[in-house]
Amino acid sequence: GIQVEQSPPDLILQEGANSTLRCNFSDSVNNLQWFHQNPWGQLINLFYIPSGTKQNGRLSATTVATERYSLLYISSSQTTDSGVYFCAVNSGGYQKVTFGTGTKLQVIP
Amino acid sequence: DAGITQSPRYKITETGRQVTLMCHQTWSHSYMFWYRQDLGHGLRLIYYSAAADITDKGEVPDGYVVSRSKTENFPLTLESATRSQTSVYFCASSPRDRVTYEQYFGPGTRLTVT
Asked: Is any Cβ of chain B less than 8 angstroms from the Cβ of A64?
């Protein structure tokens, strides 16, 4: 099956810093989503981005499907950005959703 | 707008007991999913449903049973719970619109099997 790798696995930032999270996938995908799992465990949709670039406030994402990667940019990080960031891809059949291993982000004041 | 809800949020049960986790969505999404999240494995798909009365296995279906008699509900039953089924369970839904496959997740149920 498709392999989804995220990097870095862990990241500690000072409040106000910028960061880039990466998601690499081993095969062509139909769809890609970025999620934020907050410290309370809730999974929050960030972006649905099978290709192209999207922005939402301090967050933006870019997927280059032909090169099999996606990037999540966080600017001016805040402590509320802490948690785990997952990318999830659909490959082949609609039901075949594969999650990456996640990037654990800690933003310190 | 309640969205997608799960109940109970926390559950402790004993080995061998049957337990049912409930999932309810108010969006009339056709697709619904059950995942489990474990340390070291991320989220893994247990079962999914494309519509009422249509269900199929995901990556880790053994020991679980699902049903979907109504579009809005998708219960997950552990017929005889085992300690290896201690996990956090997430339900998700997605619209039928095949232009987008965006999934929306419930708050999760933390299940402990003793």
From this structure: no
